[in-house]
Amino acid sequence: MLAPYEDDTSTGLPEWEPAQLDAFAAEADRRGWQLEVHAIGDRGIRTVLDAYEKAAATNPVRERRHRVEHIETIAAADIPRFAQLGVIASMQPYHADPSPNQIDVWAGNIGPERASRAWSWASIRRAGGIVALGSDWPVVPFDPMIALNSAVNRQTIDGRPPGGWLPSERLSLPEALAAYGHGSAYAAFAEDRRGTLRVGADADLVVLDRDILEGGPSAIIGTQVALTVVGGRVVHRSEELS
User: What are the phi and psi torsion angles at 73 (to 5°)?
Assistant: First the structure.
C-alpha cells in the first residue's frame, strides 16, 4: 500500500521491489512477451504500471496489451493510466461481493478513503481503459451470473445493499457483457475471432433461458444456460430444450 493499513504501521510486503520489477518487465517486454502481473493494493498497482511505462519507453513501439490482474484498490491518479499506457484491467467481479464478512473487514483494514475506490472497473472504463472480466475460479465460484450480478448491481445475490455498494462503479449490463466478451478476447489478442457474435468468428456461444437485456439487472440472478456451443458443436443442452 502507499500508506499504512488502518490497524497497523505496515504497508504490506511486495513480491517485487520496483527496480527488480522494472528490470524484469523491460527484458520480458524486449522479448515480445505479454506481461500479466497480480497487483491488488494501490502501491502494487502503481509499481506495475510504472514498470510497464518504463518498458515501453525503453523498447521499440509495438502493441503490448500488458495486464494488471485483480486491482482491488487504486490511487485516483492511476485510474487514467490504463488507457494512457494501453494496459488491460483484468478484474474479477465476485471479489467485490459486498457481504459484510468480506467487505467490512476489507474496508476496515484500509479505511474509507481507499475503500471508496474499491474495484473501480467503471472508473477505469470511463477513463478509456479496456476492462476484461473473468472469474478467478477456483478462488471464487465459477458461476458467471453471480459475477455478472456483482459487476452490474454491486450487490450480494440477495440484493444487499439497496442501490449497490459504491454504485458509481456499477457497469450497465451491456458494458459488463462486453467486458466479459470483447474485453477478454482483446486481452488475449483474439478479438478477430472471439468476443463478439458475427460471421467468421469462432462459434463459441451460449443461449440463456431468458433475455437478460430485456429483463434488466434484476433478471441476472437465477438465469440458466440452456445451450452451450463450442467451436460450432453443441456440448450442453438443458432438459427443457431436449
Answer: -135, 135
Contacts of 33 (CB under 8 A, 6+ apart): none
Q: Is 89 left (phi over 0), alpha (psi -120 to 50) or beta?
A: beta
pLDDT truncated to tens, each residue of the chain (242 aa)?
A: 999 999 889 999 999 999 999 999 999 999 999 999 999 999 999 999 999 999 999 999 999 999 999 999 999 999 999 999 999 999 999 999 999 888 899 999 999 999 999 999 999 999 999 999 999 999 998 899 999 999 999 999 999 999 999 999 999 999 999 999 999 999 999 999 999 999 999 999 999 999 999 988 999 999 999 999 999 999 999 988 76
Helix or strand (DSSP H, E) at 36? strand 36-39
Q: Is 136 helix (H, G, I), strand (E, B) or coil?
A: coil
Least Cα distance to 129 among 63, 194, 82, 62 occurs for 82
Domain range annotation of the chain: 18-196, 203-242
DSSP state of 15: S
- Domain 18-196 of CATH type 3.40.50.300: no
Task: Look up the pTM and report it.
Answer: 0.94
- Do 202 and 184 meet the contact criterion of CB atoms below 8 Å apart? no
Give me the half-sphere count of Cα atoms (radius 13 Å) on the Cβ side of residue 232: 6
**Across-strand partners of 150?**
none
Q: What are phi and psi of 167, to 5 degrees?
A: -60, -20
